[in-house]
Amino acid sequence: xxxxxxxxxxxxxxxxxxxxxxxxxxxxxxxxxxxxxxxxxxxxxxxxxxxxxxxxxxxxxxxxxxxxxxxxxxxxxxxxxxxxxxxxxxxxxxxxxxxxxxxxxxxxxxxxxxxxxxxxxxxxxxxxxxxxxxxxxxxxxxxxxxxxxxxxxxxxxxxxxxxxxxxxxxxxxxxxxxxxxxxxxxxxxxxxxxxxxxxxxxxxxxxxxxxxxxxxxxxxxxxxxxxxxxxxxxx
Length: 235
Known about the structure:
single chain; 235 residues; alpha+beta; five-stranded antiparallel beta sheet; 5 helices; 9 strands; 23% helix; 35% strand; disordered N terminus; signal
């Protein structure tokens, strides 16, 4: 009974093997299955970025372009940025600093996070994330530039922020109407030398500068700085 019931199955298998393009293959070995399950998706990107920011350093490959380097070491944040700036704000034999911003993370949802990658050894960058706080609503980075604010020979990092705020406009027949007013603020970061880990880093300028509030352009900020010299302050 068993032999007779097996023959049709065997015959069908042999006939299928004779069909063009048909073949039987063994299931993949356990090692192959494991390799197939390795993902290169969003979770891996997030782990790689978390590792970069936690370590505070990133290694650049020889000859690697700025954008390729940033996509590799910060694969979650950099693709969400459109304001990459490469600039050498102080003398260095290791190349330019790299700056870009993205929408703020947890606790700073309406602000911006500013990434600073600063080369301090051959193909080795310090990685720092500076918080640009919200001005009251969704805040954008209008400009990033550099100026010797303290007039001590060392340029500071300046960020010009803009925010469209909803404010009362007028009342008509008892109904309040609202409009949008754009607000501006310039935030200054000082270069603070080497950290305890031996890496270059920036810190928020502790000196109040109300004369920089609500200036809409880089030119206006530079003019205000020229009128309010603060030699050696904040150090």
